[in-house]
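debug: dumping io for the single-chain case to check the tokenizer round-trip. Nothing else runs in this session.
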Amino acid sequence: MDKFFKLHNEKIIGFKALTDADLGKSITSHQTHIGLFDDVLTFMPNQPIIEDSAMFIYNSQADILSLNFDRIENKDGSFRSPKIRIGGRDTVSIASTIRNIARESDNSLTWYLFWFGLESEQAVFWLFNNMSQTYADITNLGLSLNCNSKGRLTENDSIFNKILLYIESDLDKSTESVMKELEIETQIPGRLITEKRIRKYDISRAQKLFTDIGKQGEEFVAEYFDKLKYNNQIKNYNWVNESSESGYPYDFCYQDLSDNVIYLDVKTTKFDFQQRIIYSNKEIDFALSVPNDCYNIYRVYNLTEKNAGLRICKNCTNHFNSINGNILTFQRDLNNINTNIQSISIAFEPTISNLAFDTEIQLEKNS
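debug: decoded output
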């Protein structure tokens, strides 16, 4: 699958060894910012940014933190000296986080900061030190770094593409936790956008990505049912979304050897089994409308182009009854103020005690 986070068309990567003043360690300086370069992050506005966010990567872990960014305005109206500021006392900003990490580490370390923009116009700040694997990898790719290093990498540099591939690969690994949140956000929108943690650009791209992943999961299950039918383990099956999204509250139904009709929803994730599952109240209503043991959850996970894991829950009635009871109570309370529920989405982990999933079945694409 293509990498989700990609470099901005500006295609400039700034880097520097952080000074004691940048890290808040200088005895003579009371600097409250980390200085950047004029020709990187040119898409950022000239006016001060106080309530925004940027991606911060350290030790192959990504987080979305507060960004305080500004430039100095010259007398002629032009701007110079972009910088990221510490922010207020209780602000967890990019700059304050960098200082906290450095403060809690060995004083002999040299710290390096790389920064660049993404296609979504979100800034990324990438921190590492001279004893890290990242430092070893970057220097092995041909970029010389020392305690006085600072500069820019552009497309004209011979090592740019190698560094870019490394950065995009590290982004892909580091942002798994962000992508897990984004998968939920595309189905239950609100928090990541309102907290300004994720750009709307990324949300719209993620919606298409996870729609495609859902379709791929159903394709794996269809091939699985083809094998069951060929081996006379089921009589027949129907994939209701085969040609287009049907809008039905289930994805498949199949006829077992005793002529029972089993309905099921395929809940797919590219992540691990524990990633939360999303259900709508209408899907839960349908699951409770069919006879016991005639509704299943097919959990497809660790999805790749060629492989996936499948675990099946054949009795989710107790769990759905519990959820539905709470929804009905909520609905009765709303009715008292002449209000009703049109649609509601619920997220739950598949590992909760009142769900029992069978052992893993390995799925493989034939074509």
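debug: round-trip ok. The radius of gyration is 26 Å.
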